[in-house]
Predict the structure.
Amino acid sequence: MTLDTLTHAISGALIGRATAPQTRANTLSLKERSWVGFLAGAAPDLDAVIALFGPVAYLTHHRGESHSLLLMPIWAGLLALAFAWVGGRRLSWKAYYGVCFMALGIHILGDLITSYGTQILAPVSTWAPGLNSTFIIDPWFSAILLGGLLLSVHRRSRAVAACTLLVIVAVVALQYSQYRKAVAVGEAYAAERGISADLVQAYPQPLSWFNWKLVVVAGEIYHQTRVNLLAGQPRPAPADDAAWLKRLRADYQPVDHARWTRHRRFGDGGQDPLARAVWAEGDFAFYRRFAALPLVYGVETLDDDLCVWFYDLRFTVMDITPPFRFGMCRPETHDGGWRLHRLGAGGRQAL
C-alpha cells in the first residue's frame, strides 16, 4: 500500500523542475531534470520485487530499506551513477545527484502522509510512522500534481512547478487539520461514554478529504465508525442496486449521526481461544509487528484443516475485501501444529 507510483514519479519531476538553477551551463536541462526526477521519484517502489520472495518478505520489507532516510544518500548516488552511464557520461554523476536525492525525498514524504507506515530508519529500526492525513490513492491529490506538471512543461516554467508543490503542501496541511478534527470526534465519543481509551485514531478514506474512519481502542475492544466532517444532514440509505460510489458515499454520515460498531480483537465465543493461540505463535511474529489494528477475520474449516484468519482494521473500505489477510491452519484432528497461510482472492496459500 502506497501512494500510487505514477503520483510519486510526477512529484519527482516537479521537484526537479522547481529547483532548476537559472543558468544551466554544464548541467542538466529542464527537460532532463524532469525525466531524472520522474524516474528517481518512482524508484523506491521497485521494492515491489520483494513480493517474488513471498508475502511475508513483502510485508516485512515493503517501504523498508528502499524508503529509508538513512540510506537515501546511497540510493541517490547509485541512481546518479546509473543516469550518468545511460547519458554516455556527458555529465558527471554529480550533475544528477541533487535531483535524485530530492526526488527520493519527496517520494518518502509522500508515503509518510498515508496510513501504511514507512520504515524511515531502516535497516537500523523497523519503526514505521505514518501521518494518516492522505488516503492511499487520492485522485484529487494526483490531479493537482499532474495538472501542475503539464502546465509547467507547456510554459517551460520553473515557477509553475514550484507553485504546484506549494499547493500540495497546503492540501496536506488541510488534510492534517481534518485528521485532528476527526481524532477529536473520537475522543469526544470515548469521553461521553466513559471509555478508557488506549488509542484514538483516524484514518483517511476514499473520495473526499472529509471522509474519515474513526477507531477508539480500549484494551481488546475496537469502537469504529465512518463520518464525513462536512455533512450536515443524514445521508439516506441507498437502494440495494445502487452504484458502489453512491453506497460508499452514504456510508460516511454526519458526526451527530455516526453509527458506531464494536469489535473484539480475538472474536467472540469459541473464536477467542483459537485466535489467541494463533496470535501467540512464533511464525506469526511478523504480523504482530505489522498490524496496527489486528482483528479476527474468521475461523473456518478448509479441507479438514481448522484455520484462523486475521486482518488489519486500518485497511477496510465498505464492500471491498480487506488486504493483508494472514492466519494459521492445523488439522482438525490436532495431528499437527499450526502452519502459516495467507488468504488471498484465490483461496488460501501455504507459506
